[in-house]
Amino acid sequence: MIELIEVSKTYLLGKDQQVQAVKPTNLQIQSGEFVVITGRSGSGKTTLLNLIAGLTRPTSGSVLLDGHDLWSLSDKEQSLLRNQTVGFIFQFPSLLPSLRVLDNVVLPTIFEESGAVSNEKYARAKELLATVGLSDKLRAYPRQLSAGQQQRVVIARALLNQPKLLLADEPTSNLDEQTETEIMELFRQIHTTTGITMVMVTHTSQLVRYGTRAISMAMGQVLNSGD
Ligand SMILES: Nc1ncnc2c1ncn2[C@@H]1O[C@H](COP(=O)(O)OP(=O)(O)OP(=O)(O)O)[C@@H](O)[C@H]1O
Ligand SMILES: [Mg+2]
C-alpha cells in the first residue's frame, strides 16, 4: 500500500539553519495493516505522516502510494490519487463551524469536479454518521457537540470517499481517557470490518496495542518497524 524509499525531509529555517525532521527512511506498509507510530514531540511523526499522504514533498527519496510514485505524477493526477485513496485526520481537527454535521461530512466532495453533492454521498454520509454513533446529530452544528463527538464527525468525513488508506495524526489527543478508548474501539471496528489500511500517530504508547504493528520515532529516525 505504501512504500517509502530513502525518504527524508529537511526544513530550512532561515538562511543557514536546517532541521532534518525525517532522516532517510525505508518503510513498507502492506494493505490491511494498522500501524501505530509513537514518539516524543518533535520526533518527526507528523512529517512522516504528511510524507506518506503526499502532503509534504520529500527532500530526497520516493513515496509509492498504491503502486504510484507520488512525486512523478502531475499535480492533478496526484490530488486525484490522494482524494480517491487517502482519508486524513489531522492533528488539529477542522470542522467548518457554519456547516451542520451532515454537510461537514460531505464537504470533501464539494471540491470534486461536478460541484454538486449527490444524494448518494449524502446517503453514505448518513450511514457513516450512524456507524460513528451520531445519527441523532445530523443537523447539529459543531459547537453543539462534545470534543469526542466532533472527532467522530471528522472520522466519518475521512471515510466518505471509501479510502484504502486512513491516516490519523493524534486523533485522540484532546480527549479524556474514556472517550479516547471509545474512539480507539471505533478505529478497531472500522479496521476489522472494512480491512482498510491505517496509520495512526500518537504520543500515548498504550495505544500501540490497538494496532497490528508499532513503529517508534526519535529525532527524525524511524527506530523499529518490527511487528
Ligand atoms: N513547516 C516546518 N518548518 C520548519 N520546521 C518544521 C516544520 N514542521 C516541522 N518542523 C520541525 O521538524 C521537526 C519534526 O516536527 P513534527 O511536527 O514532524 O514532529 P511531531 O513528532 O509530529 O511532534 P508533535 O508530537 O509535537 O506533534 C521538529 O523539530 C519541528 O520543529
Ligand atoms: Mg505532530
Question: Can you describe what's shown?
Answer:
This protein has helices at residues 45-53, 75-85, 101-110, 119-131, 147-159, 177-194; strands at residues 2-13, 17-29, 34-39, 60-65, 68-69, 86-89, 165-169, 197-202, 213-218, 221-224. Helix content is 33%, strand content 28%. The radius of gyration is 18 Å and the shape is globular. With 227 residues, the protein is an alpha/beta fold. Helix 3 (101-110) crosses helix 4 and helix 4 packs across helix 5. It has six helices and ten strands, in the order E-E-E-H-E-E-H-E-H-H-H-E-H-E-E-E. The protein has a domain at 2-97 and 163-224: 3-Layer(aba) Sandwich (Rossmann fold). The protein starts with a strand and ends with a strand. The chain has a six-stranded mixed beta sheet with strand order 6-7-8-3-9-10. Helix 6 (177-194) links the parallel strand 7 (165-169) and strand 8. The mean pLDDT is 92.
Summarize this structure as a short list of keywords or feature phrases:
6 helices, alpha/beta, 227 residues, 4-stranded antiparallel sheet, binds magnesium ion, 33% helix, binds adenosine-5'-triphosphate, Rossmann fold
Small-molecule components bound: adenosine-5'-triphosphate, magnesium ion
Outline: globular
**Biggest β-sheet: strands ordered side by side in the sheet:** 6-7-8-3-9-10
What is the number of helical segments per DSSP (H or I, 4+ residues)? 6
